[in-house]
Amino acid sequence: MEFYSTRNKSYRLSGEQAVIAGIAPDGGLFLPCELPCYGREELNRMKALDYPQLAAKVMAFFFPGIGEQKLLQACRKAYAPEKFGGECPVRLHGLDGNTVMLELWHGPTLAFKDMALQMLPHLLSLSLEAAGDARRALILTATSGDTGKAALEGFTDVPGTQVAVFYPAYGVSEMQRLQMATHRAQNVAVFAVDGNFDDTQTGVKRIFADAALREEAASKGVFLSSANSINVGRLIPQIVYYIYAYLQLLSNGCVAPGDAIDIAVPTGNFGNILAAWLAGKMGIPVRTLICASNRNNILTDFFRTGVYDTRRPFYKTGSPSMDILVSSNLERLLFYLCGEDDEACAGLMRQLAQTGSYRLTPELLQKAQQQFFAACADDDQTAACIGRVWEGFGYCVDPHTAVALCALSQRPDTHFTLVASTASPYKFSSTVLRGLGRRPSQDEFENLTLLAQFLQEKPPEQLSSLRSLPLRFEQVYARESMPDLVRGLL
Ligand SMILES: *Cc1c(COP(=O)(O)O)cnc(C)c1O
C-alpha cells in the first residue's frame, strides 16, 4: 500500500510517511495508489461493527504499517463516548422520508472537524512509531474557524507535538474566536492573521515550501506537518462516517442493498465532500454528490462551467467555515477526473498558480457533472432555510448545514439523500436566531441562552464555559510575519 503525489506519481510514500509529510515536496497532495472496494456481502458483514471497529478496519487498509489492532485501540480513545456524548460519535436524524441528516458535530468542539482531528494525533504518533522516527512534530494549521479549535483539542498535550493555528482575524464567528483564543494547553500557539482564510492558507503553504525554514526546524529535531485536510491523516478518517451512515441506513431499512443514495455536503476546502466521493469509490452506492456553497460560490461556477476562477471578490458570510476561494482538495478530484494523470493535474495547478484560474476540457467537465450537482445559497436564503426547517420539522440546523439543504432544494429531481450536518447551531447562535425569526443580542453568550430557551434545551457546556476563561491569544499579526512566528516556536 503506497500513496503518491497528485503532481508526480513516481513520488511514493507509505501511508505512515504520507501522514508525517502532510504535503508532497512538489506541492502535490497525497492519494492512495489503490482503494479497497467493499462488495455487497462484505458491506452486509460490516453492519455488525461499532464505529471504532469500522474505523479501524477501513484505516487498516491504508496504514498496514500500524496494523488494525493498534488502530482499534486508537479509535476507541479518539471516539470515546465521553468525548462525543454517546456510544456512537455520529447520529442520524430523519428529516422527511427522503432526507436523513448525518450529525457530525457531537465532539468536543461541536463541528465535524473533530471526527478527523480526534484521530489525526493518534495516526501521527503511531506513524512516527512505525517509521522509527523520533523527531518532534510542529503542526501548522490554517483555519476558517472550526479546524483550529479541533486541532487544538486533538493535539492538546500530545507528547512530541506542538500546534500553531493561524486564523483570519476578522473572518471567524465570535464563538470560534473565543474557543481558540482561550485554549490553555502547553503545546499550542494561536495567531490571528490580518487577512482572509485564503491568505492564511497560502501563508501556511509557503512555509511548507520554505526549504530554509524546514532545515532550521530539522536542525532542532523538528519537522513541519499539517492538520489541514491536505493531510491524508484527516481525509481517511472522514471516509469512515459515510460508510458507517450508509450501513446504518441499510440496517434500519431506509435504503435497500444496492440502492444508490445522494449525499449533500456544505463545502469549503472540498475535504468533506471528497471523503464522500471516495466512500463511493470504495463501494458505497452513491448516485450524485451535492456540492453546496455559500455566496463564495466558486465551486458552483466550476461544476456548471468547468472554469475555476479565483479572480473574484471574497465575501464574509454567516457560514464562515465555507468562506474559501481556493479549495485545496479539489486538486485530488482533478487528479481522478484526469484519469490519474499527474502531468495533466500538475499543469492545471500551475495554471492556477500563474493566472488564478483554469478551465476543464468539455470531456472532463461532463465527467464531473455526471457525479456532482452544485448549487449555492446567500445569507438570506440560508436564514430562510433555517426558519423553514424549524417550522416544517421542528429541527434546528446551523448555517453551514442550511446551505446544504438550500442546495438540495435546487436539485432538479428528488432522491434519497444523506445530508452532512457539520456544526452545532449553538456555534452560530446569532445567525440561527435570526433565521428562527428571533432578534439576537450583541452578546454571543446571551444568544446561547436565547437559543437554548427557544429550543428548550441546555446550551452546550463547551461554549457556555468559555465565558469565564481568560483570553490567552489576542494579538493580530501581519501575514508577512507568519514564517517568523513559526521560527519563534522552534
Ligand atoms: C470546515 C467546515 C465546512 C467545510 O468543509 P470542507 O471539508 O472544508 O469542505 C463546512 N461546515 C463546517 C461547519 C465546517 O467547519
Tell me the layout of helices and strands.
Elements: E1 3-5, E2 8-13, H1 15-21, E3 30-32, H2 40-46, H3 51-62, H4 68-78, H5 81-84, E4 91-96, E5 99-103, H6 113-117, H7 120-130, E6 136-142, H8 146-155, E7 161-168, H9 174-181, E8 188-193, H10 197-209, H11 211-219, E9 222-226, H12 232-251, E10 261-266, H13 271-281, E11 286-293, H14 298-305, E12 307-309, H15 330-337, H16 342-355, E13 357-359, H17 362-371, E14 372-376, H18 379-393, H19 399-409, E15 417-421, H20 429-435, H21 444-455, H22 461-464, E16 476-477, H23 482-489
Parallel strand pairs: 5-15, 6-7, 6-9, 7-8, 8-16, 10-11, 10-15, 11-14
Antiparallel strand pairs: 1-2, 1-3, 4-5, 12-13
Helix pairs in contact: 1-7, 3-4, 3-12, 12-13, 18-19, 18-20, 20-21
